[in-house]
Write a structure and sequence with these properties.
The structure is a single chain. The protein is an alpha+beta fold. The chain folds into two domains: 2-12 and 126-210, GMP Synthetase, Chain A, domain 3 (2-Layer Sandwich), CATH 3.30.300.10; 14-112, GMP Synthetase, Chain A, domain 3, CATH 3.30.300.10. The protein contains five helices and six strands. It has a three-stranded antiparallel β-sheet with strand order 1-5-6. Strands 2-3-4 form a three-stranded mixed β-sheet, covered by helices on one side. Helix 1 crosses helix 2 (63-74). It is flat and about 60 Å long.
Length: 211
């Protein structure tokens, strides 16, 4: 017997917010100029966003507008959150792609094409779920998907804020077959709407309905 644990974070988690801003900027460049070369990173903190990187493109895009739209679409649209897409500071430090990088990524002969960066990743697909993900990860994603849908589309849990996290542990037998869900952990930002004991009881009851 062994335990396998996976974690998922919501769209409002700081890491995810940063990724979505960078992705949106890349998408806008490619939508207007398919030959754009974009290396973009984003840093977010209380009331502040910094976007930096190197770009080569024939088009201009409005970094501030794109960034604010991503943040407000996620749900950061109140000053109480200390991070509001309508009023947060945004610093753009994007500059032209360096000549050294450009020589590596643009060649007349495609067979001589280089790469502007390199990295190592690993992972695997499994027939354990319809999404080809490990059961624990699939469940962790699904929990947050349901919570986000409730937060954005219903009034069932009006106290929810954008940042949340889930962790699921599945117990397997010696034949590597899932036997049961061992542990589920869900944490979320939320408004203060009562004393601590009553808030915890309400949130627990609401989350159990999702599960």
């Amino acid at each position: 017997m062994y335990l396998f644990t996976s974690e998922s974070v919501s769209s409002g988690h700081p890491d995810k917010v940063a990724d979505q801003i960078s992705d949106a900027i890349l998408d806008q460049f490619l939508a207007k100029d398919k030959n754009s070369k974009v290396a973009c990173e984003t840093f977010v903190t209380t009331g502040q966003v910094i976007v930096g990187g190197e770009v080569k493109s024939s088009v201009y895009i409005d970094i501030q507008d794109i960034t604010r739209k991503v943040i407000t679409d996620i749900g950061y649209n109140k000053s109480d959150y200390m991070f509001d897409g309508n009023s947060c500071g945004i610093l753009s430090a994007i500059h032209e792609q360096s000549a050294d990088i450009n020589r590596g990524v643009e060649r007349l002969n495609p067979e001589q094409q280089g790469a502007g960066d390199q990295g190592m990743m690993f992972g695997y697909a499994t027939n354990e779920t319809a999404n080809y993900l490990p059961l624990s990860l699939d469940l962790a994603h699904e929990i947050l998907y349901c919570m986000e849908k409730i937060r954005k589309e219903t009034s069932l849990m009006p106290y929810l804020r954008p940042d949340s996290k889930s962790q699921v542990t599945v117990q397997y037998n010696d034949q590597c077959i899932a036997e049961r869900i061992h542990t589920i952990v869900v944490s979320t930002q939320h408004d203060e709407f009562d004393d601590d004991e009553r808030m915890l009881a309400r949130i627990k009851a609401d989350v159990k309905q999702i599960l």
